[in-house]
């Protein structure tokens, strides 16, 4: 299953960013520390025109600290980019954003040249909560659901520091299949755009391989590392009472339990990808996308020939 979600307001956000970026000094991209690669918008680099970028790995308190360190090193090695990790509900780390932005644009500051910062991120990444923490009051609406913020907002963090908030935005086509599943598991994708059972199985398959001890501690199982994802989902349903008549396991309810437990971080601190893994997924996705484009071009060429919009090529190479 390919997970895609790009409702109309995201298209408007894309246009708004393209217009706003002309007068922006630094771009903050808020990422989910549990899936830093999958939550990085590949369309943003094009939209932001190589502006200095601060990658903020939000929800670090929910993520695997060792993997967070790997991702910070990965992003900090990129040109024109800095990276920090924080928990948006913590006041002191949040204030580090202003310092990091000033380091990226040292020539901006003061009333003559105020700092202008654009903050972007996928839906439900914690952007509104972070801004409210920075401002010290409820400046934006928050919610544990994708698509809460719908309009751009300008917020003054200091007399010479303006922050432009944009609605959460994905990208029109997710070519990395694993990213689609991870985004759905995190809550970044609208609930009607994916199948909970399929997402839960992908999630559990990864957790069995990388975090079996956390699963055993959470669900009081033994031998999780030897289970398949289907077996584990059934065991979760049985353990948590997700049963229908005749003691049949309600797999839909079991899937919802697994996804909820991940989102609430009651399983423990988990990160669903490493820089190396994501690079492999991206390379495979790009290859498949290129193959799809070749097939699409061939179909379009055949259509034009059949409808005589272009002449049929001479198979002998003669003119």
Q: Could you walk me through the main structural features you see in this protein, from its secondary elements to its overall organization?
A:
The chain is an alpha/beta fold. It has 11 helices and 6 strands. The chain has a 6-stranded mixed β-sheet, with helices on both faces. α6 crosses α7 (196-210), α7 (196-210) crosses α9 and α7 packs across α10 (251-263). The longest helix is centred in the C-terminal third of the chain and has 32 residues, at 275-306. The N and C termini lie far apart (46 Å).
Brief rundown of the structure:
The protein has 319 residues and is an alpha/beta fold. The chain has helices spanning 8-20, 42-47, 65-76, 91-104, 127-135, 177-186, 196-210, 212-219, 229-239, 251-263, 275-306; strands at 26-32, 53-58, 81-86, 115-121, 153-158, 161-165.
Q: Report the end-to-end length measured between terminal Cα atoms.
A: 46 Å
Helical residue percent?
A: 40-55%
Tell me the number of strands: 6
Structural class, by secondary structure, is alpha/beta
Rg calculated over all Cα atoms: 23 Å
Provide the β-strand percentage band.
5-15%
Low-confidence stretches: 141-150
SSE topology sketch:
Layout: H1 8-20, E1 26-32, H2 42-47, E2 53-58, H3 65-76, E3 81-86, H4 91-104, E4 115-121, H5 127-135, E5 153-158, E6 161-165, H6 177-186, H7 196-210, H8 212-219, H9 229-239, H10 251-263, H11 275-306
Parallel strand pairs: 1-2, 1-4, 2-3, 4-6
Antiparallel strand pairs: 5-6
Helix pairs in contact: 6-7, 7-9, 7-10, 9-10
């Amino acid at each position: 299953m390919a997970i895609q979600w790009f409702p109309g307001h995201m298209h408007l956000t894309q246009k708004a960013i393209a217009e706003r970026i002309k007068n922006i000094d630094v771009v903050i991209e808020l990422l989910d520390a549990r899936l830093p690669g999958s939550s990085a918008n590949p369309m943003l680099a094009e939209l932001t025109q190589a502006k200095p970028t601060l990658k903020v790995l939000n929800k670090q308190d929910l993520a695997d600290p060792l993997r967070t360190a790997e991702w910070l090193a990965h992003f900090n090695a990129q040109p024109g980019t800095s990276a920090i990790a924080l928990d948006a509900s913590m006041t002191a780390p949040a204030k580090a954003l202003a310092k990091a932005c000033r380091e990226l644009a040292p020539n901006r500051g003061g009333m003559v040249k105020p700092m202008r910062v654009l903050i972007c991120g996928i839906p439900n990444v914690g952007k509104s909560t972070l801004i409210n923490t920075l401002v010290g009051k409820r400046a934006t609406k928050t919610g544990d659901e994708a698509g809460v913020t719908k309009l751009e907002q300008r917020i003054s963090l200091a007399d010479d520091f303006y922050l432009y908030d944009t609605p959460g935005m994905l990208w029109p086509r997710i070519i990395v299949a694993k990213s689609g599943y991870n985004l759905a598991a995190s809550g970044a994708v609208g609930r009607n755009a994916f199948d909970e059972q399929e997402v839960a199985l992908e999630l559990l398959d990864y957790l069995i391989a990388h975090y079996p001890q956390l699963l055993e501690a959470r669900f009081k199982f033994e031998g999780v590392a030897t289970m398949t994802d289907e077996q584990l989902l059934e065991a979760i349903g049985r353990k948590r009472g997700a049963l229908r008549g005749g003691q049949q396991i309600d797999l839909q309810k079991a899937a919802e339990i697994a996804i909820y437990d991940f989102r609430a971080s009651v399983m423990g601190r988990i990160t669903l990808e490493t820089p190396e893994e994501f690079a492999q997924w991206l390379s495979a996705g790009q290859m498949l996308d290129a193959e799809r484009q070749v097939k699409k071009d061939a179909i379009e060429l055949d259509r034009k020939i059949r409808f005589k919009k272009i002449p049929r090529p001479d198979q002998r190479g003669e003119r």
